[in-house]
Amino acid sequence: MFCVAPAELETKMNITKGGLVLFSANSNSSCMELSKKIAEDVNTTIMELLIMVYACKTSCAKSIIGVIPYFPYSKQCKMRKRGSIVSKLLASMMCKAGLTHLITMDLHQKEIQGFFNIPVDNLRASPFLLQYIQEEIPDYRNAVIVAKSPASAKRAQSFAERLRLGIAVIHGEAQDAESDLVDGRHSPPMVRSVAAIHPSLEIPMLIPKEKPPITVVGDVGGRIAIIVDDIIDDVDSFLAAAETLKERGAYKIFVMATHGLLSSDAPRLIEESAIDEVVVTNTVPHEIQKLQCPKIKTVDISMILSEAIRRIHNGESMSYLFRNIGLDD
């Protein structure tokens, strides 16, 4: 995956042509930190990681620590209908290959840690993003933290409480938005039929959800709107949220997230949108996207990763890195 090597360890690291970083504290140590810069083909990178972990395991390594700031397939952590839970599969593969410890950052759902039977340190990028708000947004006291959907309200509430700011939540969907029935997710169409069961039985069908027209719960008029989330991949929902906030009177709009995947035409769409700035961390490399869109800014989080590696290697407590983090964070 991707990890920025700590500066104080660079002289002791052996960096191969393939991007694999092996760290050895001394000649007798068999502890290794594995990191791999994420490639265009994520599946190939995952397979390479598993092979490297297994190679270390068969070479009798004492401990094998994976540093994966962005855990791939983290959005696929719930079963939808009869689908597969890919995060669980990936966790099982890593544990089976021989991983003994995992360092990651801002998992899409904290419950993903339960998929592993090894220690998982889920670090937080929020202190770096909060520092950016305080230092780079001069009038941040006039800002309001926005959740673009009720699902991200907890994260927005955490930011708002730490910055002593108000909160707003966007709820509903645009009237012209395509429904599941229109875009083919239910193809062929669902038919109410009881022919497959006993004629005397009729299983009741669940009433489908119907979202109300898009509304903003909270006052954003004449204020700076800061939309917070964990992942920015497909930016359509962020663009729709920005347009709604502009209509409600917000005069400046920031988007902040930990993982900036920014796939497909995301840079172009951001550049043409009402969003003033997109702030992401360097858990995923996005240098090309930054060249395409000057609105994208990067916050460096290598410091906390290097400190986590140092503490694990020296057998020190990791609790310092999780101070002031509540159950809902």
From TrEMBL:
Under the heading SUPFAM superfamilies, the entry gives: PRTase-like
Its GO CC terms are: cytoplasm; ribose phosphate diphosphokinase complex
Q: Which GO terms describe its molecular function?
A: ATP binding; magnesium ion binding; ribose phosphate diphosphokinase activity
Q: Does the keyword Lipoprotein apply?
A: no
What are its GO biological-process terms?
5-phosphoribose 1-diphosphate biosynthetic process; purine nucleotide biosynthetic process
* Domain Ribose-phosphate pyrophosphokinase N-terminal, first and last residues per copy: 37-98
Q: Which domain of life is it from?
A: Eukaryota
- Which InterPro entries does the annotation name? Pribosyltran_N (IPR029099), PRTase-like (IPR029057), PRTase_dom (IPR000836), Rib-P_diPkinase (IPR005946)
The answer to whether keyword Transcription applies is no
Spell out the SMART domains in the cross-references: Pribosyltran_N
Provide the alphabetized UniProt keywords: Acetylation, Nucleotide biosynthesis, Phosphoprotein
Instruction: State its role.
Output: Seems to play a negative regulatory role in 5-phosphoribose 1-diphosphate synthesis.
Quaternary form?
Binds to PRPS1 and PRPS2.
Q: Which family does it belong to?
A: Belongs to the ribose-phosphate pyrophosphokinase family.
Q: What is this protein called?
A: Phosphoribosyl pyrophosphate synthase-associated protein 2
Q: What is the organism of origin for this protein?
A: Pipistrellus kuhlii (Kuhl's pipistrelle)
Taxonomy of the source species: Eukaryota, Metazoa, Chordata, Craniata, Vertebrata
